[in-house]
Amino acid sequence: MSEEISLDSIERRVAALERSICSSAELDPENKSIDTLMNIHNRLQSAVTGREKITTLFSKLDDLQKYLDPNFREHMSLTETAKLNLVLLEEDRIRGAVDSLQTVKDMIQYLDSEHIKAVPSLSPKLYEVSQAQIKLQEDASELTAETRELIANYDNLIMSLSKQFILWDSMLTEIEKGKIKKKKISS
Predict the structure, then answer these.
(1) pLDDT tens readout for residues 46-79
(2) Are the C-beta atoms of 8 and 27 separated by less than 8 Å?
(3) Using CA atoms, how far apart are residues 91 and 89, in angstroms rounded to an integer?
(4) Residue that wins the pLDDT comparison between 34 and 29
(5) b/e burial code for range 79-101 (CB count within 10 A of at least 16 → b)
(6) In terms of Cα–Cα distance, which of 40, 39, 42, 18 is closest to 29?
(7) What's the rounded Cα separation, in Å, for the pair 177 and 183?
(8) Separation of CA 166 from chain center
């Protein structure tokens, strides 16, 4: 009897759902939602039949749903031995962290000192100093650029002078060769 009552209540709920979804013009007693859903299901089955890739994909949907389940990690938990091995592998890092925390705990008195608490009142002064430092860096960059330009000009000047001296040297050499030949001829 309870099955009939629950089945009747389910049928009433489905009928109410059909009425709320479909307008009165669309509602046909012959065309029920369950029949429509079965028809769609059958069409999908016939479309999938014979296509291996789609069938494989549908078979993997269960696995995907299993992996996306938040409780999956609980099912895949590590054994006690594996957990122990992980802790032993990370032992040095854990000990280092404990030592660092102990050092911080020992130095907490210095972290809470008046000098550190006074830092907010020094902020405007630090800002001014940082702005002055930025200005000095900009000035130094400009000076460096000007110095490089002067050095390049100096190099060009020295190169020009060297070429001129080489030219004069070759001219003097030619003149001296000419005089030596004249002296030999005249003697």
Answers:
(1) 887 888 888 888 788 888 888 787 777 666 676 7
(2) no
(3) 6
(4) 34
(5) eeeeeeeeeeeeeeeeeeeeeee
(6) 18
(7) 10
(8) 61
